């Protein structure tokens, strides 16, 4: 039951009681649980056939390349790319169910931040021919955290920067460091986000509506998952943006214990 009461006072100022409404949310909670269960089961069931399809396309691509059927191999390669997209969407759905049920696992340990970041940015650079990822990185040393999960956040921010800046050719990834925080920002020069929508983009399933935005595919989960990961790592995530000019997404992680 969610109570929404206000204290009432007599004329002499003494407290006389509460007036308010109490809403029974048992049904709402049940529906939410049903929704979470459905997403969990559906994404789990989708994962197996997609994984097997991926294995087949990779074998097929190699066979066609060996035979010298370049055009066919290229088509299968594109199919594999689309399967990667599907795998990542299913992964996002599975992560959301894990977050909602408090089961998102973390494997925190020390890792060399810049080495991991450079490797990741190299992979991400390979996903775009249009954009150049410009790096402005300070040496961050060893960081304590889940390398895969933090990598997932960076991938998300850079992938979004690429997706939402179709008419620009540059993305800047920069890091700064102070005594107790490492900050990483991804800046793009794309469509930007209106002020009124800025604080909503980290919500589950939220997608900015509008003529421009509808042309970009997505489920509205990447930033929600990213913000949950950063929160669980003890950090914070935020965005600054100007519509039509571009956006800068940043996160900061605590590094107070890194030399202990
Ligand atoms: P998705 O991109 O799958 O829709 P996200 O959770 O990653 O989901 O992002 C939520 C919404 O925030 C997007 O639908 C988009 O409207 C907006 N957004 C995210 N990143 C950017 C960006 N770099 N530039 C402009 N809009 C963005």
From TrEMBL:
Coiled coil region boundaries: none
Domain of life (superkingdom): Bacteria
Chain segments annotated as transmembrane: none
UniProt name for this protein: Uncharacterized protein
